[in-house]
Amino acid sequence: MTTIEPVAEERVSSRHDERFAGWECSEPGTFKKLMPPGPRPKFSWLRPSILWSARNDPLVRYLGDPTDEQRQQWVAAQRERRGTDDLTIDRSDLGDSFSFLIAGDTGEGTPPQFAVVPGLLKVGEDTAFLVALSDVIYPIGDVNDYVDKFARPYAAYPGPIYAVPGNHDWYDGLGGFMRIFCGAEWPAGKIRGTGLKAQLRRRLWRQPSICAEDTLGRCRELRPALGQPPTLPGPYWTLETGPVRFVGIDTGIVGNLDGEQGDWLREVSRGSKPKILLTGKPLYVNNKCEPGLIAGRDFTVDDVVRDPENNYVAAIGGDIHNYQRYPAPVDGRTIQYIVSGGGGAFMHATHTIPKVDVNGVSEDDFKCYPLRGDSLAFYSRLYSQKIALRSRALQIVPEQASALIASRVNSVPTRGGTTRPLLRTRVRGSFVGLLPSGQTFHKYLSEFATWVDPPLFKHFLRLDVSPTEVRIRCFAATGCGAQEKDPPVEDDFVIPLGGG
Ligand SMILES: [Fe+2]
Fold first, then answer.
1. Could you tell me if 292 and 263 are in contact, meaning their C-beta atoms sit under 8 angstroms apart?
2. Residue 447 above 60 pLDDT?
3. Is the pLDDT of residue 77 over 80?
4. How far is the CA of 46 from the centre of ligand 1 (A)?
5. CA distances from 379 to 416, 468, 483 (A)
6. Fewest C-beta atoms under 10 Å: which of 77, 285, 413, 499?
7. How do residues 218-274 score in pLDDT, each as one tens digit?
8. How far apart are the CA of 314 and the centre of ligand 1, in A?
9. CA–CA–CA angle 411, 374, 42 (5° rounding)
10. Residue 468 C-alpha to ligand 1 middle, in angstroms?
11. What is the C-alpha to C-alpha distance for residues 393 and 379, in angstroms, rounded to an integer?
12. Cα dihedral angle (339, 404, 352, 306), rounded to 10 degrees?
């Protein structure tokens, strides 16, 4: 197995040295050269046409969720077309030891997505494949957006790319995702249902976009391997390797599974072979456990993951645009619950995560990137720029932000420094804390929040798999040239597999 030798951690991580967070950027990143030529198209969730095109989200919430039915239609069509019920990707050719990458919530087509690419190519030089985890294409999974938001950024990645869909891919009825990854020729059948709500929903439901004549050609010009052959058997799948089985699930718009997929999940999870779940929605996030409901079944996704007979060692989910790790004790074992959605789209705050105490995971066990102090400093800078007329009225320097967070969670600042937040830090921190920074904020005010300069606080994962262990590292992308050349390692841990 090829591994990158860890450099002394204190040299390379924002956990130990502020310089590696990208606050001071002595050399700009080269990533802008990868971006499409010409002006960047303007995009705003506040534009009526965008709100209308993303209407499947409120339709699901107010008129009921037809994604289960539509997914079943996609899967049935795939099984018929492929002549098998099997949804396995056989990668036994990789042998006993191999490495791969995960990049979560990638597809905004904005500078932060491209900023991840140089480090990802460098660290992933010898990797076997890449997994795009959740929200492959924003805002609505449109097949025509795959040119600049998928084929262009990953044009130089040599291996195959597998993917797990997220809610934004479903705003297109999963049409773009199925076309690109599964080679599906045309959308599944129309959604059914009786009653006023279902009728209304059927009339309003956004069907997949029509693929423009030149879309696939332009994609293949940039990334010749794209779609030849399709990399996925369906929207959910298993990837079978010698040491570990990877199980990718499709959590639709609201995060639940259809019953048929739930039964499939239980079936493919049986047995003592080590498994890692890859999901569009994380099971542990922001100090909460969200177990993942399954329609018409009396068990959850987390029940399957926690069942000792199934031997899951980790569950990695996208959707939230930062990194979080919860090593949860389960019946004498540890299952690593990871959020990894910082591979491209705008950053979700970590400073709003309270002191961690969930199902046996304590604050001392918890890891996140960006550090909460950096997240608070970032948002104080953002709000200073956007609403305080570019003054520094709300700005908190990273060391002070770190001291304030430490005082809130009864700890010491992660990278040392003062433990005493100034009074003005407390006042500014309270004010910034009151301002929105969650998903709704980004959904409707993403243009307002657009931030294209370092520090960008993006990340991707590298997994090194062998018969005895899986090593997982979280590499940062800040947008600075120095971290493109030597991406900081923000987390590095090993999961023993007990094989050999
Ligand atoms: Fe997302």
1. no
2. no
3. yes
4. 18
5. 21, 41, 21
6. 499
7. 999 999 888 677 899 999 999 999 999 999 999 999 999 999 999 999 999 999 999
8. 20
9. 150
10. 33
11. 13
12. 40
The Å distance, Cα 139 to ligand 1 centre, comes to 9
pTM: 0.93
Q: Residue 100 and residue 278: Cα distance in Å, rounded?
A: 13
How many CB atoms lie under 10 A from the CB of residue 272? 10
Pair of tokens at residue 342: 């910082």
- In this structure, what DSSP letter does residue 480 have? B
Query: Residues 419, 449, 456, CA angle at the centre, nearest 5°?
Result: 55
Answer for the pair 294, 262: CB distance below 8 angstroms, yes or no. Answer: yes
Percent of the chain whose pLDDT exceeds 70: 89
The tens digit of pLDDT for each residue in 369-394 reads 999 999 999 989 888 887 765 667 78
* CATH class entry, domain 9-25+29-348+453-496: alpha beta
Q: Determine the residue type at 498.
A: G
Query: From the CA of 281, how far away is ligand 1's center (Å)?
Result: 9
How many whole angstroms from 169 Cα to the centroid of ligand 1? 10
- Between CA 420 and CA 406 the distance in angstroms is 9
Q: Classify residue 402 by burial, with Cβ atoms within 10 Å: 0-12, 13-18, 19+.
A: buried
Q: How many CB atoms lie within 10 A of CB 262?
A: 23
The backbone torsions φ and ψ at residue 139, rounded to the nearest 5 degrees and listed phi first, read -85, -20
CA–CA distance, 340 with 458 (Å, rounded to integer) = 10
Which residue from 496, 492, 493, 488 is spatially nearest to 16, judged by alpha carbons?
488
- Residue 275 φ/ψ region, left for φ over 0, alpha for ψ in the -120 to 50 degree band, beta for the rest: beta
Average pLDDT over residues 46-68: 79
Residue 6 has pLDDT above 70, yes or no: no
Q: What's the gap in Å between 167 CA and the centre of ligand 1?
A: 8
